[in-house]
């Protein structure tokens, strides 16, 4: 992923140098396990431990000749190890014992970073929702005015969506945090299963239960699917901000720096570019999710068609998801809200937003449904066409609608607030 959409703590996990450091970690643990089994001499283990992580430049230099990254890495790693000790490195292992076990470790680390960012976003949404719980605004269906709600209610829906995304990601982390050190076709023919148990245990990983030389790729597909769903949830937040930021609506606005400039030609512009960026990144994640599904079906025990895909998709997906989630939390945290504009949007239609309450009142008084609906509809249409208030048109038909205020729609709103408070408490405890 380009640096523009990369945060350093996540990008570092996916650098070539960090990957080789993890490969060294796996090789050292495997050698330790073999020493415990009596198969690698203690003196050789000491020599192996003393070797440094090879540089990415040195591995690339060797790979240009050999066209095999893992063998090039092993050659570079063993250059500082005496030959009598170097022969014990990678004992009984095949390439993807190293690659997939290290990948599981790095994916777990990446997931932990992403989960921290998601927890922050959930908390920011919940806090902002509580702050604006009583900020009345018009609800919209099909893009049109519906009934009154509150801005806090909108944000609560987003907070719960992010919470669900967080649970999906936790489940996906459990699935990808596995390794395998089982040999060429996963039969442990040349390596004791103890090595796998020891290495994966030290790395905090589970074990692929029926390895085929590689870890099953449905695991990685599940992770990127979960990241894509998270991205779609964030896209929903960003889309709402974009719609409410339009000039004729202006119920919210993205936080701005003092030096903000929105257009090279039109100095008045205050564009929701942060939200637009989040929408675009969600599209990237959806594309990656589909690509990872193509990686699940490999030939027989394995092939290498997945490798080139994963080198691009897994780092990009995790980096994008982490950046998008962090940026979304920043956006919500700094969001400017204009309660007077929200209330004005309710009032500007002269009471039309209360038509459902009037209809319910007529039905409760015993009016036949079709007649009640048509009566209220006629008053609403007449108010729209004439510019009169809805209440005036109802009065002309002999209907006393009572006070037309948004609070009559919020009598049970505390039910949702109690649910939100539970979510807030989860964030405080974390």
Structural summary, described in words:
The protein has 430 residues and is mainly alpha-helical. The protein folds into 3 domains: 1-91, Fumarase C, Chain B, domain 1; 94-343, Fumarase/aspartase (Central domain) (Fumarase C, Chain A, domain 2, Up-down Bundle); 347-429, Orthogonal Bundle (Ribonucleotide Reductase Protein R1, domain 1). The protein has helices at residues 8-13, 16-36, 42-50, 56-66, 69-78, 83-86, 95-131, 151-176, 193-203, 218-245, 273-294, 305-334, 339-347, 355-364, 369-386, 390-396, 413-429; strands at residues 136-141, 144-150, 178-179, 206-207, 252-253, 336-337. The protein has a two-stranded antiparallel ribbon with strand order 1-2. It has a two-stranded parallel ribbon with strand order 3-4. Strands 5-6 form a two-stranded antiparallel ribbon. β1 and β2 (144-150) form a beta hairpin. α15 crosses α16 (390-396). The longest helix has 37 residues, at 95-131. The protein is elongated and about 100 Å long. It starts with 7 loop residues before the first helix and ends with a helix. The mean pLDDT is 94.
């Amino acid at each position: 992923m380009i640096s523009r959409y990369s945060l350093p703590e996540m990008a570092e996990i996916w650098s070539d140098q960090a990957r080789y450091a993890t490969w060294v970690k796996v090789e050292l643990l495997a050698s330790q396990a073999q020493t415990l089994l009596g198969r690698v001499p203690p003196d050789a283990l000491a020599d192996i431990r003393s070797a440094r992580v090879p540089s990415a430049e040195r591995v690339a230099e060797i790979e240009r000749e050999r066209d095999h990254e893992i063998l090039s890495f092993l050659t570079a790693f063993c250059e500082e190890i005496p030959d009598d000790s170097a022969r014990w490195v990678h004992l009984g292992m095949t390439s993807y014992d190293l690659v997939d076990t290290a990948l599981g470790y790095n994916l777990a680390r990446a997931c932990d970073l992403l989960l921290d960012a998601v927890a922050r976003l959930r908390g920011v949404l919940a806090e902002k929702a509580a702050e604006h719980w009583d900020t009345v605004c018009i609800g919209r269906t099909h893009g049109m005015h519906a009934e009154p709600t509150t801005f806090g209610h909108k944000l609560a829906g987003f907070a719960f969506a992010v919470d669900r995304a967080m649970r999906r990601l936790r489940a996906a982390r459990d699935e990808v945090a596995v390794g395998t050190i089982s040999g060429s076709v996963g039969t442990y023919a040349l390596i004791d299963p103890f090595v796998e148990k020891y290495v994966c245990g030290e790395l905090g990983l589970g074990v692929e239960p029926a390895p085929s030389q590689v870890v099953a790729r449905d695991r990685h597909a599940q992770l990127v699917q979960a990241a894509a769903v998270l991205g779609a949830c964030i896209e929903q937040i960003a889309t709402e901000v974009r719609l409410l930021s339009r000039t004729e609506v202006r119920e919210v606005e993205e936080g701005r720096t003092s030096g903000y400039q929105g257009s090279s030609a039109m100095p008045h512009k205050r564009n929701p570019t942060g939200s637009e960026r989040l929408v675009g990144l969600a599209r990237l994640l959806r594309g990656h999710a589909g690509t990872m599904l193509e990686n699940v079906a490999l030939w027989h025990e394995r092939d290498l068609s997945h490798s080139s895909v994963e080198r691009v998709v897994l780092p990009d997906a995790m980096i994008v998801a982490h950046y998008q989630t962090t940026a979304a939390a920043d956006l919500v945290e700094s969001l400017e809200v204009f309660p007077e504009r929200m209330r004005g949007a309710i009032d500007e239609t002269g009471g039309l937003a209360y038509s459902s309450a009037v209809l319910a009142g007529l039905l409760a008084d015993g009016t036949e449904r079709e007649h009640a609906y048509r009566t209220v509809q006629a008053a609403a249409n007449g108010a729209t066409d004439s510019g009169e208030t809805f209440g005036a048109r109802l009065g002309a038909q002999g209907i006393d609608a009572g006070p037309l205020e948004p609070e009559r729609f919020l009598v049970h709103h505390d039910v949702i607030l109690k649910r939100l408070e539970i979510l807030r408490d989860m964030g405080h405890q974390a």
